[in-house]
Amino acid sequence: MAPKRLESLMLKDRPVVPPDSVIKTFSHLRGYNIDLVLTQDMEGLCQESFVIRQGDWAKFFLDSWFDPLYRTYNFQRAERHALEHVVQWHPTVLTRLAIVPQGIMNAYGVDIPRRGGKEVMYKEEDFVVQFPGCKVGPNRNCEKEMESYYKQWKATITREN
Known about the structure:
Layout: H1 3-9, E1 36-41, E2 44-52, H2 56-65, H3 68-71, H4 78-89, H5 91-94, E3 97-99, H6 102-105, E4 107-108, E5 129-130, H7 142-160
Parallel strand pairs: 1-3, 4-5
Antiparallel strand pairs: 1-2
């Protein structure tokens, strides 16, 4: 993502863990400073979809996030809470972080009220659709949830060819 484009999308001075974390994204960062791009929903940072710039810092970040210390700590929501801990309490990570609007790379394919509801559901202009918890719920059918998006994708591909 081009630095200028990233800067236009960055949510600055925003609580890292909504709604009221005292740790906020920096307002002075520029697009060329960013190595990690995330989204967040009403529950916190979204670990399901992120962009990371390849390099030594990426290796450091992934090693930190997946360190056995964090893996065995029994965070309530595993990867999400480990990620939130690393981002909030390690300035080396926070100084390279940009949070962008959820629709840019993590819109939801179904209405999940506790995570933002219809407001964060996939819209035509969004880039990525995701189906969190699809395999977890006993009343959910992944194939059925994805069907309309698959048809839309197939129609677009056919039209372009």
